[in-house]
Amino acid sequence: MQAIDIMRTELITVSPRDTVDHAARLMLEHRVSGLPVVDDEGLLVGIVSEGDLLHRVENDTDRNRSMLREMFASPARLAAEFLKSTGREVKDVMTPEPITVSESTLLAGIADLFDRNRIKRVPVLRDGRLVGIVSRTDLLRALVGSGGARPGHLRVVEFN
C-alpha cells in the first residue's frame, strides 16, 4: 500500500499569518494534533503541532538549562527559541520545511519516517502541492484493516 491509499484529503490548514490561538482552536474543534501551514499560493511552508504549542506554553520549564549548555548555544538559536516561545503568529511557532512524502511512498517507508524522526504525521505532496496527510492513526488503521495485526489472546486485567 502507498500513501495515496490511506491519506486524508479533507484537510484543515492554517496560514503563517494566522494567530497561534486560531490554530489551537482549530486543532481542538477538529480533533487533530497538527495542521499543515500553507502560503497564499497553497504551497506547504510548515506544520504546526500540539507539541509546538505546548513548547510555547512550557517556555519557563524549557528555558531551565545548564549554564554550560547556555554558553555553547548560538545567539541565533537562542533568538529562535525566544521567538518560538513568545510568538503570536503560526509562522513563529511552526516547524518550517516539514518532512513530506509523495503519494507513491510505501507505508513501510512512512512508518520508518515516523520512527526515525519521532513525528506523528507527514504531509503528502504532488508536484510540490499539498494533497493529503498521513498520521500514525491512519497508518495503524491501514495495518489493522489489511490483516497486518497478528491475532493474539485478549487478557483482561482488573485494577482494584
Could you give the order of the helices and strands? HHEEHHHHHEEHEEH
Low-confidence stretches: 57-65
Tell the overall outline: globular
Gyration radius over CA:
19 Å
Q: How many angstroms does the end-to-end distance come to?
A: 43 Å
Q: At the first level of CATH, what is the class?
A: Alpha Beta
Helix/strand/pairing class, anyone?
A: alpha+beta
Strand order of the largest sheet: 1-2-3
| CATH-level-4 superfamily name | CBS-domain
Number of strands: 6
User: How would you characterize the largest beta sheet?
Assistant: 3 strands, antiparallel
Helix content: 40-55%
- Domains, number: 1
Q: How much of the sequence is in beta strands?
A: 15-25%
Number of helices: 9
- Mean pLDDT across the residues is 80
Could you provide a short overview of the structure?
The chain is of the alpha+beta class. The protein has helices spanning 3-6, 20-30, 50-57, 59-62, 67-72, 75-86, 90-93, 107-117, 136-145; strands at residues 34-38, 44-49, 95-96, 101-102, 121-126, 129-135. It is 44% helix and 18% strand.
Give structural attributes.
single chain, 160 residues, CBS-domain, three-stranded mixed sheet, 6 strands, 44% helix, globular
Structure characterization notes:
The protein has 160 residues and is α+β, with helices and mostly antiparallel strands. It has one domain (3-145): CBS-domain, CATH 3.10.580.10. The protein is 44% helix and 18% strand. The chain has nine helices and six strands, in the order H-H-E-E-H-H-H-H-H-E-E-H-E-E-H. The chain has helices at 3-6, 20-30, 50-57, 59-62, 67-72, 75-86, 90-93, 107-117, 136-145, and strands at residues 34-38, 44-49, 95-96, 101-102, 121-126, 129-135. The strands form two sheets. The protein has a three-stranded antiparallel sheet with strand order 1-2-3. Strands 4-5-6 form a three-stranded mixed sheet. A hairpin with a 2-residue loop joins strand 5 and strand 6. It starts with a helix and ends in a 15-residue tail after the last helix. Mean pLDDT is 80; it is low at 57-65.
